[in-house]
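hey can u check if this looks right to u? its 130 residues, i copy pasted from the old doc so theres a chance i mangled smth
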Amino acid sequence: MKSMLTETKKLGNAGEQFVANYLQHNGFTICTQNYRQFFGEIDVIAYKKNMYVFVEVKTRKSNAMPMGNLISPAKQSKIIKTAQTFIAQNQLHSTNICRFDVALLVKKDDTFIMQYIENAFTKPESSYGY
């Protein structure tokens, strides 16, 4: 069982690095990867032109399961709360734009096929305080 977990973790790490490379190629600076708080984690946090992007990465060996169903409202809430902590810890200004993106990856030979969804979800209007 341990080797399967290790393979899954390796696949996830490779997917996250693929997304980080994609973002860098598109002009983003990677702030951090695997940002963790006790209530949640964000896979990739990137910055470009006054905008912070919080990216959830889902990597699979096949696309048998509908990938869009992998990020539940509860998971979205945890990501938003974790992002708010990152914003507070780094004393980011309210003039910065925050966006929540999702990268859905499927392993194909030695690379990935990616569906990148910008602004995949948003936080409720009542929680936009910084």
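Residues 34 and 43 are 4 Å apart (CA to CA).
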